[in-house]
Amino acid sequence: MAGTLFLNDRDVTTDFLFVVQAMSGLPGTMGSAPRDLPMLDGPEVSEAILDPRLLRRKPGSASVRGYISAPSVAAMVSALDALKGVILGGEFAVRSGYATDRQCFAVCDNAPGDAFVGEMLDGKVALSLSLTIRSGVAERLVPDGYALSTTRVACPQWTAEARPVIVVHGGGAALTNPVVTMRNAGGDIVQTAGFTVSLGANDALRLDCARALVSKITSGVVSDAVAAGYWTSGDFALVFRPMVDGNPEAAAYPTLELSASSGTPVGRVTYTRRAV
Amino acid sequence: MTVLLPSSARKSRYLFEFDAARALASPEQSLDAVTGQLAGFTRASVKYAIDANGRYYAVAYGLPGFEWFTDVLTGLQAPGLMIEESRTNLVIQSDVCTVANGWSVSGTTTAAANLTYAGRPFTFINNANAGSLARTIATFTGSGQKAFSFLLKQDGAVAGTALFSIGDSTAGVTRGIVTATISAAGVVTAVGSSGATVLRVESLADGVYRVHAYVTGTLAANVHAVYVANSGTATSYLISGIDVENGVFPTSLIPTTTATVTRAADVLTYNLLALPRAITIRTDALCRVSPNAATNYGVWGLGSAGPPYALGRYDGTTLQSHIQHFGSGSLVSSQTTTAPTYGQRTELRHVLRSTGGVIAALAVDGGAESATAVSTAGVLAAAWSDTALLVGNGGGQPATVLLRSLRIAADEQTLAYMRTG
After folding, report:
1. Looking at beta carbons, which residues of chain A come within 8 Å of B262?
2. What is the 3-state secondary structure (H, E, C) of chain A?
3. Chain A hits for B119, Cβ within 8 Å
4. Is B119 on the interface with A (CB under 8 A)?
5. Residue in A closest to B13 by C-alpha
6. What pLDDT band is residue A257 in, cutting at 50, 70 and 90?
7. What is the 3 state secondary structure string of chain B?
8. Which one, out of A100, A235, B139, B147, has a CA that is 20 to 30 A from the CA of B22?
């Protein structure tokens, strides 16, 4: 497949081609990619609820064989030099030509020089890369963002858990004791988070579910220190579990909705889709 | 496979880097701490933005408004930071145009719709083709050109035209008519006449369309009426978001109820701490201004307390990239020959060189860049008077843009570097 190589100090765009043989840990149409990535590296638990934030994914691996094509020896030297500079210099982002809206992070395990065969035939140089996928999941390149109200809104997911950031407010009016409700694709309530707080017309509540952080925003000014105590009922932080609460392949997704003791709650949810 | 550099290495090369579409749980996080320095954002009001589904949502007071758009380069729904000037919707009861809400209705019936569409409440207009009329009186606070916009949705499978207009009741003349045509499939198109010009028709969720237009020749001393049903051929349709603003093009939706509503300006501030000897500022944004020869549209301003300072702008006549560097008593300016149209993705690159000269450059929709020659030298040592770079407050009339990213480098850099470095 064709690709583009971006560099720090130089922008080298050339006709280098990769043939991906296998890349575990990447989703979608990666052909024969094995799905044997060990999923958990956390504490052993028995008959207990495990906090998902304690889970760590083991790295996957990828073997990539391919070739770089270039119109001249000089261009080839430049392309090889650029590629070496990137992949042997530390962690880098990898995107697949088959799923261009996602990326994961990897390091190259080849010793310097081993990855490249220095013979140029028919304008091509072969190479073989051994990558360790550090992130274990692929993330969407851009975040999703959806309006929230008292009616349910579906939150499209990929196959891995995602932790949203939710902003709730009264839309320019006061709001008291907002509640965020998550339902599965079947409409059953699976998580709620209730907050005992009075929000003025210029106030908002921000729920960062990745950090388990509740922030009250008063006239645009964030006040974290006093906000944690506002969470008084239900489950927090909210976590999208797409394979449990829906079925991404069938476009069946969990939903979010808002309610409050008084006032009309509105807001927005944002998150980055992730896939194993 | 595309191999990219580690993000940490990219970011470290800039004084400041903001990328609204960065893969984070929330785009607000991309405003801060990317390079270890913080951006400031203010807006003293609520505003309305469009989410990834094409539905409106309210953005809380003081928080940055992110609107999702289809990136022409990636095809993905990506967020952009809304940068707009302050505007006031002069029409009260903008969404529910009923007699109970003070609208005058004859020959037709209007009622609040049962459902919301694209996140907004609507008015159901019935018998709209039978010599009908639904209007409200608006008090205009200035003469001349007025931005005019509204939301329109098909009722069932009803096709035909719907007429929206602004009339001068005192002078007994029409200031502009927008004729919207609803196809059998529900697609809305629109044309202007009698002083009205349609800028664009925007497709939203639930079959809702927003028509962006303006009218001319209004007089503040006169009484004006805004008509939302004026004997078109469609028997029924749904409307909302009736919006008249002092401006040459509409901005984001400003709903009203019992009084006019003012949406405050968005201002993104970045403190450079120590001014470099040279600087490159690249703003990657969707251009949401329409040309107006009387006005330049400032994208950023450096040094807000008066000359000496520097401004990066769209030229008002053609939207070309324009930079002015007000040195100590000397002015140098530079302008490209490329011009974008409304809604195109523009990459403005403005360079202030160590010699005091300036370069303005512009690329449209990811294409090749057009750049000016280096201008005559100014006096860089006094190029600006403070270290605050303000986006959305550049030089008088701020531009309306959807900011995709902002990168500032402490040296002279090419567009290729600013795109990928």
Report:
1. none
2. CECCECCCCCCCCCEEEEEEEEECCCCCCCCCCCCCCCCCCCCCCCCCCCCHHHCCCCCEEEEEEEEEECCCHHHHHHHHHHHHHHHCCCCEEEEECCEEEEEEEEEECCCCCCCEEEEEECCEEEEEEEEEECCCCEEECCCEEEEECCCCEECCCCCECECCEEEEECCCCCEEEEEEEEECCCCCEEEEEEECCEECCCEEEEEECCCCEEEEEECCEEECCCCHHHEEEECCCCCECHHHHCEHHHCECCEEEEEEEECCCEEEEEECCEEC
3. 147, 149
4. yes
5. A8
6. very high
7. CEEECCHHHHHCCCCEEEECCCCCCCHHHHHCCCCCCCEEEECCCCEEEECCCCCEEEECCCCCCEEEEECCCCCCEEEEEEECCCEEECCCCCCCCCHHHCCEEECCEEEEEEEEECCEEEEEEECCCCCCEEEEEECCCCCEEEEEEEEEEECCCCCEEEEEEEEECCCCEEEEEEEEEECCCCCEEEEEECCCEEEEEEECHHHEEEEEEEEEEECCCCCEEEEEECCCCCCCEEEEEEEEEECCCCCCCCCCCCCCEEECCCEEEEECCCCCCCEEEEEEEEECCCCCCCCCEEEEEECCCCCCEEEEEECCCCCCEEEEEECCCCEEEEECCCCCCCCCEEEEEEEECCCCCEEEEEEECCCCEEECCCCCCCCHHHCCCCCEEEECCCCCCECCEEEEEEEEECCCCCHHHHHHC
8. A235
Instruction: Indicate yes or no: pTM above 0.95.
Output: no
CB < 8 Å to A8, chain B: 5, 9-10, 13, 421
User: B8, B14, B26, B63: best mutation site toward chain A, by most A Cβ within 10 Å?
Assistant: B26
B33 touches A at CB < 8 Å = no
Structure token pair of residue B189: 């198109």
pLDDT value of residue B331: 78
- Whether residue B114 lies within 8 A of chain A, CB to CB, comes out as no
Annotate B232-263 with b (16+ C-beta within 10 A) or e (fewer): bebbbbbbbbbbbbbbbbbbbbbbbeeebbeb
User: B 62-91 residues with CB below 8 A of A?
Assistant: 62-63, 66, 68, 71, 74, 76-79
Which stretch of A97-101, A243-247, B373-377, B400-404 has the lowest confidence by average pLDDT? A97-101
Cα gap B172→B132, rounded to integer Å: 18
| Ramachandran area for residue A73 (φ above 0: left; ψ -120 to 50: alpha; else beta) | alpha
In this predicted structure, the answer to whether residue A240 has a pLDDT above a threshold of 80 is yes
Q: Which two three-digit tokens encode residue B168?
A: 């001068």
Which residue type is seen at B240? S
Q: Could you report the per-residue pLDDT of A227-238, keeping only the tens digit for each?
A: 678 999 998 889
Structure tokens at B411: 């040296």
Question: One digit per residue, pLDDT tens: chain B, 421 residues?
Answer: 344 444 444 445 678 888 898 878 888 888 764 555 578 889 999 999 999 999 999 999 999 999 999 888 778 899 999 999 999 999 999 999 999 999 999 888 899 998 999 999 999 999 888 777 889 988 888 889 999 999 999 999 999 999 999 999 999 999 999 999 999 999 999 999 999 999 999 999 999 999 999 999 999 899 999 999 888 899 999 999 999 999 999 999 999 999 999 999 998 888 877 777 788 999 999 999 988 888 889 898 887 656 657 888 899 899 999 988 877 667 788 899 889 998 899 999 999 888 888 899 999 998 899 999 988 877 665 556 677 888 886 556 788 999 999 988 888 888 888 876 5
